Amino acid sequence: MITPQTVSDTKRSGNLGNNPEFLTLKQARKLVLLSTGLPPRKQAGKAIESTLKVVEQLGYVQIDTISAVQRAHHHTLWSRNPRYKNTHLQELIVQKKVFEYWTHAAAFLPMRDYRYSLPLKHAMAQDHQNHWFSGNESLNEEVLARIAAEGPLMSKDFVHTGAKIQKWDSRPAKRALAILFMQGKLMISRRVNFHKVFDLTERVLPIGVNTSSPSPEEHARFLITQFLKSNGIGQLSEITYLRRRFKTLIATTISKMEAYGELVEVITEGTTYFTLPSSLTLLGKPLKRSKLKILSPFDNLLIQRRRIRSLFGFEYLLECYLPKEKRLYGYFSLPLLWDAMLVGRMDCRAERKKSILHINNLIIEPGVKRKEQLLEALSSELIPFLKFNNCESIVVHRMTPVSLKTPWEKMLKEKFPK
User: Fold this and answer.
1) In sequence order, which residues have a C-beta less than 8 Å from that of residue 52 and are 6 or more positions away?
2) Environment class of residue 418 by beta-carbon count within 10 Å: exposed (0-12), middle (13-18) or buried (19+)?
3) pLDDT digits (tens, 9 = 90+) for 16-25
4) Last residue of some domain: 173, 204, 235?
5) Is the pTM for the entire model greater than 0.85?
């Protein structure tokens, strides 16, 4: 039997394991970007098939309700699949190839990974960890019975005339639905105008999907491998981000995997990460450095702010949660990726009734060189970005450095004659 101690002893003896690889910061960034699918490479096959491949590669796509521009889940997928349509996710849910559940936040996940959602669901059910609130077991059973008898229902189908429990939670049934969803007894079968439609899990799952619970180590291996496949390199703290309950097991499993050559240590700028041996082959592939991408604040690349600060030197805070007077950049600033760097941020709002994209504030990061080429790349990317946001024209309100505003507006007029 292999134990953490025998693994540690084996590593010290030199019988197993690998010597660390040394990567430059430029190589580390390249590995991260290619793993997360940015910028996108040419894709074959149907557009919706490419969307599914992106979800499977990333492991999850975070759902968010903010609609200053296209919502985060659409934006993240569009950034990697230029042929993405907003209907794809719902089509994939109906086809039972994607499902909704919780990672570090509400997310769309590939159905092929369904069984790995079970450990959290079982913990919620067995330990009575009912997410943000405790529940009413009697009401839970009533809600479950109604859906079993009547079929898929939304929260508005449960009438409640009593006092509000919280500002954002006006119906006890809404609370019950959330609890039953987190426990895995209900799933979201589809959405109607972004409202969740709940049904019994057994009626949502496709025939033949693996519903066996993974062993603790099998689950830990999945979490480690999936993170590294979709992020290139990672540390224990990053792999276990908002997964504290699994941290000890993941740490032990990392030691085992490294000892047997399933993981490789890579050192960048004195910082040690783990990667998969197969991921290192990505360093031989080209990266589209000249292609600029406008990213969602909830993009998988950006979720862990400390990681992005360390690897890309980019300080980022989403300021929509701050009072207006405390914002430095704007309500919903979108990071700009170009030349394998995060080179700026653009606070935007799509005024859909008038088909105008308002660029409230564009900030180029200090120290960025070749600013003219950067603005040319941004101008080119704004053409598909406008179409993605159902807009036809652009209004630029503010820009830093301010000296670039007039020449950039001239550049935009050439791209957008209207």
Assistant:
1) 92, 97, 98, 110
2) exposed
3) 456 899 999 9
4) 204
5) yes
